[in-house]
Amino acid sequence: MDPVRFGLVGYGFGGRYFHAPLLAAAPEVDLLGVVTTSAERRAQVTAEHPGLRTFGSLEELADAGAEAVAISTPADTHTPLTEQALRLDLAVVCDKPFALDAPAAEGTVQLAAARRLPLAPYQNRRWDSDFRTVRALVDAGRLGTVTRFESRFERFEPEPGPPAAGGGTLLDFGSHLVDQALVLLGPVTGVYAEWRLRENGLDDDVFVALSHAGGASSHLWGSWSQGAPGDRFRVSGTEGAYVVGGPMDGQEAALLAGQTPATLGERWGAEPGERWGRLRRGDDGIVVPTERGRWDTFHPAFAAAVRGEGPVPVDPRDAVATATVLDAARRSATEGVVVAL
Predict the structure, then answer these.
(1) Are residues 24 and 142 in the same domain?
(2) Which residue intervals define the domain GFO/IDH/MocA-like oxidoreductase in the entry (predicted)?
């Protein structure tokens, strides 16, 4: 397969660490450059990726021959930039939150379908090491029938707290938390949520309870100001439970330390034994080796979809489903009601 000519829009935290190193390390991708108008970030691109071009607009990137683009910019720009890229005939990976609400997400999905262009939300956390382990255990029936999924994205960074670019903790962390719950347990019929509004108007300390159509429930927590972060996952079933503590999957830490799949090879995404979880049955329990994290597979899979050699790694309609749940959670937290879907 010929590498897909890819561009990156935005070089803030997400673009700099979650996209650029993975795009640059993928043989299936020819990274053309970064769209940014910031002189500081252009200098960062030059320092960290010598020879990589920078562009002042999506139009410049398209004129340079790009076929696809990853968008990693502030949350409120995702919909207009994604739709602008689609109208330039570019396939699009859009970072989370895919859109600020479900109607906006639906409109973007319909535009991509009308233009027959690949589109995918960047739900890289589906390929977290610990979540891949959860899915493997559930698929193998080792927990029996899953009754409750407990999941936490909790950090202690109260100042400055949730970045404005993420749109608040519900949109920022909730996009991943809800997506994982839907992947594991399927459609939702009811949503209850609580949050704390900070002085700047952004929500934090979010709790979301989901009732799934299949009978199971999900309890999800997201916080930037939790002094005692809880277990990353506790997944309960009729035959036992799987528990894995924090911190988060190690791929983020590896990227922040300057490591990539190219530098680590087969060690990419591997978790040390002391961070493996346990399969518990009352007082009895066994250690379960953690699956490798595989964020490195997302962009290559999307490139294959651009070439017509496979599906996109995440169906764009999944972004609509996630946004629908987040809209309901926002209403629940605001009005103090359980929202039926």
Answers:
(1) no
(2) 131-242
Checking if the pLDDT of 18 tops 90, the result is yes
Q: Please check whether residue 17 lies inside any domain of the structure.
A: yes
For 25, the domain range is 4-124+298-314
Task: Provide the number of structural domains found in the chain.
Answer: 2
Mean pLDDT (the chain) is 97
pLDDT value at residue 181: 98
Spatial CA neighbour of 256 closest among 21, 10, 71: 21
Domain with 146 in it: what CATH number? Answer: 3.30.360.10
Q: Which two tokens stand for residue 212?
A: 């799934």
Q: Is the pTM here over 0.85, yes or no?
A: yes
pLDDT over 90 at 30, yes or no:
yes
67-118 residue pLDDT tens: 999 999 999 999 999 999 999 999 999 999 999 999 999 999 999 999 999 9
Q: How far is CA 71 from the centre of its chain?
A: 13
